[in-house]
Amino acid sequence: MSRRTIIAFAATLRRALRALAAAQTIALCTCVPSFDDDIGLLTKPRVIDIAFEPPEAAPGERVFATATVASQLGRISAQGARWSWCTESKRPWENTGVSAECNRLNPQPSDVVGEAVALTVPTQSCSTFGPEVASVRDRPSDPDATGGYYAPVRFVLSADGPEPLMAFGFVRIKCALANASADAVKAFAKQYAPNERPQFYVRVHGLHPLRSNSHDADDAIATSPPDGASATSALTPREPLPPIGAVAPGATLHLRAQWSEHDAETYAWFDPAARAMTERRESIRVRWFVTAGNVQNAQVSRDERDGTTWADTSWTAPTMPRDSHDPREPLGVQLFAIARDSRGASAVVTFRVTVAQPNDTVSTAP
């Protein structure tokens, strides 16, 4: 085997490893948590989403980052969390979403503290994590399937246990089109529209009234609630949401996450095989987490070729109370729906239902 053949093979292997790592990163999106339980049941504190507004930004621009942390008690305050940018790209042989250096729990003086914080995209992001290179000896990063590059952000929250909670969010960065003709670069800059977060709501069917003398409908619509005040200490449950309705033990609610046709955005994409500009449509994935009970399909995806603007699943209420719950009292359960598009933007809808017999009088207070 000639030296030229060996070099070409090594370059092909590096590209394959980079592509695999990029695919894994987008599949996880927040990188941590890894969605390894099929039922979406929350049994311990975990980061279930990290969102950015805007979800796509140029180096030097500011984004607002928000983490959603939840446990079997519901959403948890993350006011003491520390945020920091990863400063180096992962090596081709590293099989995690970020570099080993960024995976270390080393606090930095530049860390930003809070549950929702403002962060400025590092000016070198397109060279560190994107297609730009400082010299011909450097190898640029490979884009994901949508043509995007991402700058990772580390999130660390002190927890009750031996290890803090650590997760990674990924900001899609605006970089110039690489490996394309001058005409394609100009066309891409003119046609490409930055990503926006999807907007959606959840329709809940199968509820019974909260009060025995009520004639409320058996369905409700849940949207993202306003971000209310929360405790300042880490891993403190937020003030519970008021329930949207009640359900009998063991009964099933039908859930539909609904979005508009515009939320699965159409975007300009450079086809590297055809060496030409074309258009693609975002796919959308909906992921469910619950504090009790069982979700039939905890993850439902709509492919970019699927024009459907909803994702259906069902949730079955627990028949037995939690270990620490008085069986004589109604049980409050919190459900989380996370919609994420294929370019990395996400949105969260959360709501609470009460598990109680239909003839019980249920308080509407949290």
Short key terms for the protein model shown above:
mainly beta, five-stranded mixed sheet, five-stranded antiparallel sheet, Immunoglobulin-like, 366 residues
Model description:
This protein is 11% helix and 34% strand. The protein contains three helices and 21 strands. The chain has helices spanning 3-28, 125-128, 182-191, and strands at residues 46-53, 56-57, 62-71, 74-76, 82-85, 112-113, 116-120, 149-157, 165-173, 200-205, 219-222, 246-247, 252-259, 266-271, 276-281, 284-290, 294-295, 299-302, 310-316, 331-341, 346-355. A five-stranded mixed β-sheet has the order 2-9-8-5-6. Strands 11-10-13-19-17 form a five-stranded antiparallel β-sheet, with no helix packed on it. The chain is globular. The chain starts with a helix and ends in an 11-residue tail after the last strand. The model is unreliable at 15-38 and 226-236 (pLDDT under 50).
CATH class term of the largest domain: Mainly Beta
Helix proportion range: 10-25%
User: Strand order across the biggest sheet?
Assistant: 2-9-8-5-6
Return the domain count: 2
End-to-end Cα distance: 71 Å
Number of helices: 3
Rg estimate, integer Å: 23 Å
The secondary structure category is mainly beta
Mean pLDDT: 81
CATH topology of the largest domain: Immunoglobulin-like
CATH homologous superfamily descriptor of the largest domain: Immunoglobulins
In sequence order, what are the helices and strands, one letter per element? HEEEEEEEHEEHEEEEEEEEEEEE
